[in-house]
Design goal:
mainly beta, globular, single chain, 319 residues, five-stranded mixed beta sheet
Length: 319
């Protein structure tokens, strides 16, 4: 049983709780679009956050990576292993490509092309163009393959060097955008977290000129904010955020402040206030169990998605 908990904060205690039962298995991935939350794992479901109403979009088994794209949901099916776009209005699936294995997929507009950007098998950055008329098999373009001792995770679009073009944050690297889609991308290391296979499987957040990275799969987990170098093609200066021990389930900025959520139970959701020197010592906002991830809602509230429930934390609790 999957449940939604809507928690209304009052000081340091929760004044009321609303529980909405939801029939389904464990959640593997999620995406937020406006007032809708989409979750997938054992099937794919749409949740209307204001009302709590849920509906099943599709059957099947789906892995972590996915996103909302146009009027559909991009998901990574596991049996058989393939990337699908599921039309929301009727649940009809279209096969984007077969054999795809991704933990990171985001909707993207790159240099006049519209589609989905992902990391295939934790090392190959790919882009799939949305076809002008929906069909199976989308045009795939390989942007870059990263060869390091560690697999790579975390994917963000950002203008890193200030030239107005859509660069990428990808694992330990940033990738400089060419001036046109047909030209090659260039890769530059931000850090050297690549000692072990999982060292560069990261959660990432960006608020210019700061990049925050936390390890998903390594215990204890390194988490740091990185100060962009004057020449961003050189290694950036790392400033550790101490005390994260149970893996990183999510990182995001709330305004200038930073929220980091631990992945394993009993996990903490921590607020780091932005200061002139970096970030202050953290304050605990909440506890979680088996966290899948966190997301902003209504530009300020916080969604905490676990394997079996959803918690909405009101922004007033951050104060």
């Amino acid at each position: 049983m999957f449940r939604i908990f809507l928690l209304l904060a009052a000081g340091c205690a929760f004044a009321s709780e609303r529980t909405i039962p939801f029939s389904g298995g464990e959640v593997a991935g999620f995406a937020v679009a406006g007032s809708k939350l989409y979750v997938w794992g054992d099937g794919a479901h749409e949740i209307d956050l204001p009302s709590g109403h849920t509906r099943r979009i599709a059957d099947g088994r789906f892995a972590e990576g996915g996103c909302v794209l146009d009027d559909g949901l991009v998901v990574n099916a596991t049996t058989p292993r393939q990337l699908e776009w599921i039309r929301l209005r009727d649940g009809k699936p279209f096969i984007i490509d077969t054999g795809v294995d991704t933990r990171d997929a985001i909707a993207a507009d790159l240099l006049g092309h519209h589609g989905v950007l992902l990391i295939h098998k934790r090392q190959q950055v790919r882009f799939y163009d949305v076809p002008s008329r929906m069909r199976d098999r989308w045009q795939e373009t390989e942007l870059y393959t990263i060869y390091t001792p560690s697999t790579e995770g975390g994917l963000v679009i950002a203008d890193i060097d200030g030239d107005g073009l859509p660069d990428l944050l990808c694992g330990n690297y940033w990738m400089k955008s060419p001036t046109s889609f047909e030209l090659p991308w260039r890769e530059y290391a931000i850090d050297t977290w690549n000692e072990d296979e999982g060292s560069a499987m990261l959660r990432l957040a960006w608020s210019e000129p700061v990049r925050v990275a936390g390890q998903r799969d390594v215990r204890p987990s390194r988490v740091a904010w990185f100060e962009r170098a004057t020449d961003p093609k050189q290694l950036w200066t790392a400033h550790p955020l101490e005390g994260i021990e149970r893996g990183v389930g999510g990182i995001l900025f709330s305004g200038r402040d930073l929220i980091v959520a631990e992945r394993d139970a009993p996990g903490r959701v921590l607020l780091f206030r932005r200061t002139a020197e970096g970030f202050a010592a953290p304050r605990e906002l909440a506890r979680t169990n088996n966290l899948i991830g966190i997301a902003a809602y209504n530009n300020q509230d916080l969604l905490m998605i676990e394997k079996n429930k959803l918690i909405l934390l009101r922004h007033s609790e951050f104060n």
